[in-house]
Amino acid sequence: MALVGSLSSTPAVSGTIQPFVSAGVEHDDNLFRASENEAARADTYRSAGGGLRFERPVSRQLLTAFADFSSVKFDRNSQLDYLRKDIRGDWHWFVASRFDGHIGGYYRQELASFADFDVVQRNLRVSKKRYADGRWRFHPSWQLRGEVSKEEYAYELASQRASDRTEDSWVAGFDYLARSGSTAGFQLRRLEGKYPNWLTAGNTGMLINGYDQDEAKLNVLWLATGSTQLLFLGGWVQRKQMGQSTRDDSGTNARLIVNYTPAGRMKVTGQAWREFAAIDGALIGSALANGASAQVTWEFSAKIQGEVDVRKEEREFKPFGGAAQPVVAADLASDSRDTRSVGLVYKPLRNITIKARAFQEQRSGSLAAGTNSYKANGASINATLQFN
Questions:
Q1: What whole-number distance in Å separates Cα of residue 185 and Cα of residue 3?
Q2: Per-residue pLDDT tens for 297-333?
Q3: Distance of alpha carbon 95 from alpha carbon 126, whole angstroms
């Protein structure tokens, strides 16, 4: 769940439909994330498509939608060609002066990452989410809030459908609203994950059908200064795995986000996290992820903006176990990944945006989880034309 007290503002109410078209090209020198002792397969792929942005106020209500469809074609691996889809919608509702919330959802179809699946065939990943949330400001300084959501993930390849899953989430909490704009609150969350195709653990015959996760967390937005804002969501989490209690886990989970916007044209966003997460892989289903990231943007001029992004994450796994799994040392039951990218955004005209990006990715793999060690480098450029 996103941190309450988001720093993003409500879009300007214009009641418009804005169509757009886009095109891009990207090169990856290790498309299938081959290990360091295997031959890397490079490829270049191109995308072309379009869509629209929609925004419509209805009295105090605000309806927004977004749709983007792109055809993606590969030079050397045409078996991977696919249609990328991204559809989103949201209704920001208001009742009287004390109640508001959101109802919406999204549908996405994209090529699944090859990092955790040892395949060279096309493996489309479809993700869907439906959500509803609401807030009741029953006092100038206090509010109650709640959220329900359902997420679904499905894979195209029959060999990967064991990773299909659904996640149902319920959140209830309250917040203190300071006059400064800062907030401090507490929330309870219940997360239920299910694997509809049943995941068999090794050769044990044991069926791993899902997990339950209960959370109790503090939720804080602190406007420290006019240029520094901190968001924190953290507390105690207990995760239980159905069918294999030896993989149950509990402990502290937290995410800290710091936004720093000093005088001038620069913005810095830093994050650090320690969270349980579902993993879509052949031998593992979950991990404890510890990581940190930093993003820096700099407006060189009204038309040119530079971007730098660095990220490091380590995942600690608890494999399913069983006769099919090797016995490994603790340091082999984790992997770590480093990614770095630099980019340039150029807006020659108000309705034209050109983005160029170069990236480098490196991972140290895990024997227990079946993830390999690899290096990958790439670059991309894409352009978008928006019709007002």
A1: 11
A2: 999 999 999 999 999 999 998 765 544 444 444 556 8
A3: 34
* Neighbouring-strand partners of residue 176: 142, 184
Burial 50-75 (b: 16+ CB within 10 A, else e): bbebebeeeeeebbbbbbbebebebe
Choose among 350, 337, 352: nearest CA to 382.
352
For 47, how many CA atoms within 13 A lie in the half-sphere containing its CB?
A: 24
Considering Cα of 151, then 155, then 156, then 162, what sign does the dihedral take?
Answer: negative
Q: Three-state DSSP class for 330?
A: helix
d(CA 268, CA 256): 14
Burial 164-179 (b: 16+ CB within 10 A, else e): bbbbebebebbbebee
Tens digits of per-residue pLDDT, 240-290? 887 666 678 889 999 999 999 987 789 999 999 999 987 766 566 678 999
Q: What tokens were used for 382?
A: 């894409």
- Other beta carbons within 10 Å of 253: 22
CA distance 226 to 11: 21
Q: What's the CA angle centered on 384, arms 378 and 387, to 5 degrees? A: 170
Radius of gyration of the chain (CA): 22
DSSP H helices, the chain, are none
Whether the Cβ atoms of residue 334 and residue 326 lie closer than 8 Å to each other: no
Cα separation, 325 vs 201, in Å, equals 9
* Residue whose tokens read 């090529």: 111
Total residues belonging to the chain: 388
Q: Which two tokens mark 82?
A: 């696919």
Tokens for 26?
A: 């990207």
DSSP for 214-257? EEEEEEEEEE-SSSEEEEEEEEEEEEEETT-GGG-EEEEEEEEE
Q: What is the DSSP string of 69-134?
A: EEEEEESS-GGG-EEEEEEEEEEEEEETTTEEEEEEEEEEEEEPPSSS----S--EEEEEEEEEEE
